[in-house]
C-alpha cells in the first residue's frame, strides 16, 4: 500500500468515525416514563401518588399514580430529576439520575424503581 | 471627443448594471405601495439572506472557470435532500443531524458533480443548456431512487416518511428536528429582530474561502481557463480536469446550501424543493449585476436582497394595485425566468458590442 492510499484510508476511517459520532450525538430516543406497578429484583413496587419529573432540564411533567408519559431526548446521555410530592405539592424527596442511551429508538424507565434506587430500565412498548 | 467618451462610459455603466438598476427602481415603487414597515422588511431580508446566500455563492466557482451559470447545482441540492431524508428516518436531529446529512450527501454530491463535469467537458461552449438538461435527467434518477428505491432497496423504518403503499417517500417531510438548528445556534437579538448569527458566520467563512481559493494555484488555473481555454491548455493547465473540479466544488457547496436552506424552512418538498433552487439562485445572482462571465461576492448579496425584496413586497403591492395578492406569486416565476432571459440576451448583446468595439479600435490603430 502506498503512502497516499494509506492517507486516503485513514481519512475515510476518520469520516466514518465522525459520522458515527454525529449519529450518536444527534440520535433522538423516545423515553417512556412509567409510574405504574412494577416488580424489580423480586420486589413489588406500587406507583407513587404525586411526582414532578424533569428530563434534560426541560419543562417539568406532573405524574399521578398509574400515569405513563413519553418525551423525546437527544444524544447519548440525559439527566433526569424526580421530585416526590406530598398532597400539598411540597417536595418530599429529590432523586437525580443520568440516563444513557446507545442506538435504540425507545427506552422506558420506572419511576417507583428509580425513587427506590433499584434498576429502573424496563422494556419499552413495542420492543418485543 | 471628451463628451463622447463620457457618454460612452455612462452608457456602458448603465448597460452593465441594467438589471440591478431596474430592480432598484421596481423596489422603490413597490415598497411604499406594499405598506410594510422598514423593521419587517429588514427582518425578512436578514432571514432570506441567511437562507439563500450559500446556494447563490456556490455558483461563483464555475463562473470563474468560464463555465457560465451552473444550472447543474440542482444535482447538489438533490444530494443534500437525500442526506436529509436519511437523517429524518434515523431520527438524528439538531446540529449533529444537519452535519450528518451534509456528511452523507457529500460523496453523492461529489459523484454527481463528477458526472456533470465530465458531461460538460463534452459540451464546451454550451455548458449552461447542457447542465440545465442534465438537471432534468438526474432529477429523473432522483425520483426513481426516492419514489421506488427508498423503502424497497434502501430501508426506511419510519412509517410517517413512507407512502401508504409501503415504499417511496411522501411528498412532504417535516424537518422539525433540524429546523433553525444553525440559525439559532448563537442567539442574537437586535431590538425585536432576531439575527441568525451562526448562519452568517458560515456564509462569511464561505466568502473567505472563495477569496482564498481565487488566489490559489487551482483558482488561478480556473481563471486562466475562464479567460481562454486554448491558451490555458497551451500553458500546460489540465483544462478538463480543472473544469471537473470546478463543477464538483460547486455541486458540493450547492448541496450544503440546500441543507442550510431547508433547515431554515423546516419542511422539505421531496420532489420539488430542488427544482427551484437553481433557478432562483441564478436569478438572484443575475439581479445582483453578475453576468454569465463575471460574478463577485458583492453581486451575490445585492442580488439576494433585491430579488427577495421583490418577493416580499410584490404580493402586497399587487394587492394594492389590482386587488389581487396572487400577482406576487406570478411575479416570482415571471421575474425568475424573465430576468435570466434578459441577462442572457444582454450578455450576448454586450459581447457583440465588445467585439464591434474591438474591431473598430483595431481598424483605428491600423489607420
TrEMBL record, chain A:
It comes from the Bacteria. InterPro entries: DUF6672. This is Uncharacterized protein. It comes from Thermanaerovibrio acidaminovorans (strain ATCC 49978 / DSM 6589 / Su883) (Selenomonas acidaminovorans).
UniProtKB/TrEMBL annotation, chain B:
It is a multi-pass membrane protein. The keyword Membrane applies. The chain crosses the membrane at residues 20-42, 54-87, 99-120, 132-151, 193-213, 244-265, 277-293, 300-318, 330-349. InterPro entries: ABC_transp_permease. One of its GO terms (cellular component) is plasma membrane. Keywords: Cell membrane, Membrane, Transmembrane, Transmembrane helix. Its main location: membrane. It is found in: Cell membrane. The keyword Phosphoprotein does not apply. One of its GO terms (molecular function) is transmembrane transporter activity. PANTHER family: ABC TRANSPORTER PERMEASE PROTEIN YPHD-RELATED-RELATED, SUGAR ABC TRANSPORTER PERMEASE PROTEIN. This is Inner-membrane translocator. It comes from Thermanaerovibrio acidaminovorans (strain ATCC 49978 / DSM 6589 / Su883) (Selenomonas acidaminovorans).
Amino acid at each position: 500500500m502506498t503512502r497516499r492510499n494509506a492517507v486516503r484510508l485513514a481519512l475515510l476511517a476518520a469520516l466514518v468515525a465522525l459520522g458515527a459520532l454525529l449519529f450518536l450525538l444527534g440520535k433522538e430516543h423516545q423515553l417512556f416514563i412509567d409510574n405504574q406497578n412494577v416488580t424489580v429484583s423480586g420486589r413489588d413496587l406500587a406507583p407513587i401518588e404525586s411526582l414532578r419529573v424533569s428530563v434534560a432540564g426541560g419543562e417539568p411533567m406532573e405524574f399521578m399514580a398509574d400515569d405513563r408519559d413519553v418525551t423525546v431526548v437527544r444524544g447519548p446521555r440525559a439527566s433526569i430529576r424526580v421530585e416526590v410530592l406530598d398532597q400539598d405539592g411540597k417536595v418530599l424527596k429529590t432523586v437525580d439520575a443520568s440516563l444513557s442511551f446507545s442506538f435504540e429508538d425507545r427506552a422506558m424507565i420506572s419511576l417507583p424503581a428509580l425513587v427506590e434506587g433499584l434498576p429502573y430500565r424496563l422494556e419499552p412498548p413495542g420492543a418485543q | 471627443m471628451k463628451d463622447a467618451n463620457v457618454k460612452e462610459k455612462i452608457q456602458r455603466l448603465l448597460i452593465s448594471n441594467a438589471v440591478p438598476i431596474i430592480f432598484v427602481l421596481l423596489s422603490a415603487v413597490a415598497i411604499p405601495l406594499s405598506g410594510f414597515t422598514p423593521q419587517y422588511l429588514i427582518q425578512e431580508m436578514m432571514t432570506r439572506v441567511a437562507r439563500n446566500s450559500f446556494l447563490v455563492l456556490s455558483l461563483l466557482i464555475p463562473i470563474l472557470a468560464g463555465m457560465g451559470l451552473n444550472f447543474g447545482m440542482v444535482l447538489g441540492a438533490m444530494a443534500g435532500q437525500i442526506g436529509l431524508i436519511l437523517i429524518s428516518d434515523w431520527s438524528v436531529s439538531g446540529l449533529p443531524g444537519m452535519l450528518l446529512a451534509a456528511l452523507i450527501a457529500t460523496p453523492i454530491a461529489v459523484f454527481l458533480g463528477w458526472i456533470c463535469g465530465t458531461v460538460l467537458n463534452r459540451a464546451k461552449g454550451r455548458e449552461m443548456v447542457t447542465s440545465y438538461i442534465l438537471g432534468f435527467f438526474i432529477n429523473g434518477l432522483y425520483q426513481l431512487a426516492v419514489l421506488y428505491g427508498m423503502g424497497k432497496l434502501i430501508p426506511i423504518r419510519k412509517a410517517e416518511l413512507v407512502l401508504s403503499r409501503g415504499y417511496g417517500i411522501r411528498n412532504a417531510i417535516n424537518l422539525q428536528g433540524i429546523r433553525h438548528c444553525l440559525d439559532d445556534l448563537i442567539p442574537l437579538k437586535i431590538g425585536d429582530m432576531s439575527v441568525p448569527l451562526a448562519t452568517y458566520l458560515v456564509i462569511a467563512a464561505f466568502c473567505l474561502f472563495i477569496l482564498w481559493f481565487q488566489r490559489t494555484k487551482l483558482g488561478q488555473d480556473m481563471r486562466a481557463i475562464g479567460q481562454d481555454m486554448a491558451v490555458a491548455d497551451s500553458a500546460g493547465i489540465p483544462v478538463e480536469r480543472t473544469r471537473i473540479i470546478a463543477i464538483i466544488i460547486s455541486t458540493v457547496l450547492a448541496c450544503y446550501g440546500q441543507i442550510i436552506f431547508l433547515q431554515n424552512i423546516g419542511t422539505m418538498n421531496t420532489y420539488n424543493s430542488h427544482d427551484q433552487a437553481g433557478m432562483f439562485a441564478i436569478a438572484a445572482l443575475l439581479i445582483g449585476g453578475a453576468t454569465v462571465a463575471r460574478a463577485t461576492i458583492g453581486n451575490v448579496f445585492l442580488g439576494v436582497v433585491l430579488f427577495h425584496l421583490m418577493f416580499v413586497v410584490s404580493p402586497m403591492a399587487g394587492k394594492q394595485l389590482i386587488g389581487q395578492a396572487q400577482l406576487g406569486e406570478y411575479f416570482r416565476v415571471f421575474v425568475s425566468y424573465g430576468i435570466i432571459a434578459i441577462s442572457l440576451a444582454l450578455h450576448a448583446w454586450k459581447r457583440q458590442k465588445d467585439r464591434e468595439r474591438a474591431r473598430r479600435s483595431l481598424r483605428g490603430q491600423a489607420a
